[in-house]
Write a structure and sequence with these properties.
The complex is a heterodimer.
Chain A lengths: L20 H8 L2 E12 L2 E12 L3 E6 L5 H9 L4 E9 L5 E3 L5 H7 E4 L11 H6 L15 H13 L15 H14 L4 E5 L7 H16 L3 E5 L3 H7 L2 E6 L2 E6 L1 H4 L2 H8 L3 E9 L2 E8 L7
Helix pairs in contact in A: 5-6, 6-7
Chain B lengths: L3 H6 L49 H8 L3 H23 L7 H12 L8 H35 L12 H14 L4 H26 L3 H26 L5 H9 L8 H20 L1 H7 L3 H6 L4 H23 L5 H13 L3 H25 L7 H20 L4
Classes of the chains: A alpha/beta, B mainly alpha.
Amino acid sequence: MPARAGERPNERPDERPVGRPDARADEKMTALLEVRNLTCGYGKKEIVHEASFSVARREFCCVIGANGSGKTTALKGILGLLPLVSGQVLVNTAAGVSVDTAQMKVRERARHFAYIPQLHIPPFPFKVADVVLLGRTPHLPSNAAGASAHDKRVAYQSMELLSIENLAEQEYTELSGGQQQLVLIARALAQEPDILIMDEPTASLDFGNQQLVLTRLHALSRSGMAVLMVTHDPDHALFCADTVVVMEDGKVIDQGSPSETIDSDKLRRIYRTEVYVADVEVGAGRMQRTCIPLRWNEKD
Amino acid sequence: MRYNPYMALIVNKDKPTASGPDAAPPPAAAPPDAAPATASAPATASAPATTQPAAPPPASDRALEVYSTRHLLRRIILLAVALLAVALVSLMLGRYTAWPHQILQTVIEHFGPTGAITDPKLDTALFNIRFPRVVVVVLVGMALSVAGASYQGMFKNPLVSPDLLGASAGASFGACLALLADLGNEFIQLFAFIGGLLAVLCVLAVNRAVRSDALLGLILGGILVGTLFSSGTSIIKLVADADDKLPAITFWLMGSFASITLRDMVLTAPLMLIGFVLLLSQRWNLNVLSFGEEEAKSLGVNTRRTRFIVIIAATLLTACSVAIAGIIGWIGLVVPHLTRAIVGPNYRLLLPTTMLVGAAFLLVVDNFARLLFAVEIPIGLLTSILGVPFFAFIYRRNMKGW
């Protein structure tokens, strides 16, 4: 499902893809990541049933759904962290070849997929620069040899892209949550992936840091990656997604552009709560859709 | 370079103040009047989107500067020199004090073509007693601290020591069994070594059987198997002859380098070298593993293989150490932390440095053990007595990192 970024009423003008729109349209023809009938779970318990969707290059795709709807499990299946019961995860490489990730070794997979986990604190106070350099792991000729000058330059550039190069010498554990998340994003960039996969990367961030991280991620998706993000906040999907995949009870129940998929009825259904979805004018002629949670007794 | 498109597209660089050339972005091609926060004009792929007019060093140089470890390398060289100095002092000290020129003279004569030795007593003391002892102390100090540091990374826990998976408990049991059966010294060592390996193999089997989270299964297995083997040791103590064998067992368990011979050194050194090489080859992977299983996998590390190599190598080192010197606690826990305070937590430097620090630390403690009193103090006791307050001190200083 190609994104209709330009047609969305809530699209901010400066959010429009910059650069080469023609090239972008071409690449949209084939999906970079294709998930076909993905079924997986923990042990014998199947959690995700027959989920299918695809993400194109330069597309930002959000997966929304209630707790326990199988969003995270689906991500783990795609990343190869869980064995698949059935189905396929395909990567369409630049040469036009479609590769089943089941055939890939963990190292090769890491050159296609980068994963940004929820924020957590590592046990040791690593330097920010060292954390980012770990993103070069799948590109090293041998892990025993360590990083080359090229690897260090790529790592430094990914810090520059996120404007965190001034944090390079600081201890990762001393940073604020938003900065730590940016460091993990820089590490994912140093991996030079085709597909960026995130599991609620803004989960423990405050309001401003959520916006900061999502804005950066949105810009990155425009630079040539496919981005797949699980989020528990439909407002995040409205903020930065080109396409939305809606999951309920382990199944994909809807997918399409945010304006098609996120409405009051859909959110009431998947979150089992009262919510009102409104298009609000946030500036001269600039509309943005937003989700407003309602108290039970304030039903309209 | 693949990164240029990204560079061009991220226009919204919120850098309010660039403090000096250190924090400045790569060379600016855009005019300085383009405000960074509102730069919404589409940047073309050829022009970098940075706007700072300052003249910083080229980005690539800055990148290498950030990753430079020259100031740490200086510290490591100092530590290596310190280790050599401590080793020399250890060779000098003893019931028969030898000055450096005497040592040098004896060494030259020992390996010289004439075979004439002016001081045969010193020759014996040096080559049969002190030299093997110093080398073995160095090896054991290196082994325990490098194994401890590796486990701390692998288990993502700074409070882990190399006996976590029962290697020490198993080795103790094996040694006690040999002592009970009145076997010779070489059998005590062999039994201890096999006991240590066996215990860790049992842990791996338990881990396979419980099929839970990989690390949890290992830790659980370590507790179970360790308890089992400790109980075995207690049973042996119970049935051992209280006049004769029980003291021998108790003394052995407290650890000692007193009876090290040249043969011990020759037997253990190659095994330990294998362990060192294996662990040092996993330095990068240990950095990655300390971020957790899923992240390590998504960064392309074969976590099962890495864990297996680390466990095998650490067990080899621990079992060798216990077999040759008995139980020497606290080195594997304290030394890695002390080293982190010197060179930081990056395993690339931490592992080799922790070996230097561990060797020097244990040599100093061993000198106290053999020289402080007329009777040698078991070194395991001294490392605990010194290790506990030392650990409390480092913990207070380093706590922010944990």
